[in-house]
Amino acid sequence: MFIPTRAAGLEALRDFVPHAGADYRRDRNHDLGPSRTNVSGLSPYLRHRLVIEEEVVDAVLERHSLHAAEKFVQEVFWRTYWKGWLEQRPEVWRRYRREVRDLLAAELPNGYEDAVAGRTGIDAMDAWARELVKTGYLHNHVRMWFASIWVFTLGLPWQLGADFFLRHLLDGDAASNTLSWRWVAGLQTRGKTYLATTENIARYTEGRFAPTGLATTARVLDEEPFPPAVPIAPEDVVGEVGSRVGLLLHEDDLEPTSLLAALGPDVPELRATAVCADAGARSPATVSPLVEAFTAGAVTDAAAHASGADERPATPLGAVDASAVTDWARSEALDTVLVPYAPVGPAQERLEGLRSALASEGVGLVTVRRSWDSRAWPFASRGFFPFKEKIPQLLRTR
Fold first, then answer.
1. What is the dihedral of CA 13, 18, 22, 28, to 10 degrees?
2. Is the pTM of this model over 0.90?
């Protein structure tokens, strides 16, 4: 279904733009199975920034007014909102990671293996589990139903459900996935749960599914409080740019042209470029072959389009460790490695370890945060509804 190239993402954008207004507003919540055409299918490209949020929104608003395309534009900003919210509360991600490791290392709860294999006996749930494994994608409404049934009907830990999604979703990222599961479970907005119902599922699948026996009440989940939120750092560029500069892309941001344009005219010419990714870092368990393949394809595509001063294609460094990057920097005689800022998640964890390794070689690691994130993330301090009121302002101040 999804070809892991920027060209394929841009083609999907062109095909969807005519439908991003009234059509999307009317049909967005309906799911008729894997052949669906009522949603954009852009999320795997946005997740890896093969296509960037700004160009998606610009293309839509060239064709539609903001009022007409409001629902779609808000969907693009949901991913930005989740990232900004988690950026201010990184311990939410760290605790989730610890809990997943502990749950997977212990005896798995009754019903877990049947749920991930599509053997629960709930026809909708089983079809969705098989669709996720087969395609790497689920409609957003289905994701909410699935999470609700997982937590409240099957009584399974939300962390294991979030891990199942993250291992299989082509568009899975730390913020959107973790926080969406927390929202359904009633932890993200305290006391507000999402309870799937037979009537809602039947309505929006147009009768394909009408599962019975679903939970009619949501059990109350609780957790230890988290530390206070930390403010978004004001600097877009962190570190001093030297004269022998290389660019290192990673799986969270694979579009170099717009990234470098944000630095202005004073950035030295790149001596070399490289691309790294580690899809397997999403989970302590085995990540889907589809996710591995899509990520690898996205890296290959980005490497073909990112080049240094001598027009050499970027060096693919694979599931990189610090030694691979330091070897590359040494071989290219770099004094600076530019990287796109990685939001809270596995890529950020790798970059934190990479900084000290490069410093030991006399190479500085300079992170570059996109202005899209810098403008929006500070407004993600509360719920989405206050955030969405800022969307017109965010669009005007670009």
1. -30
2. yes
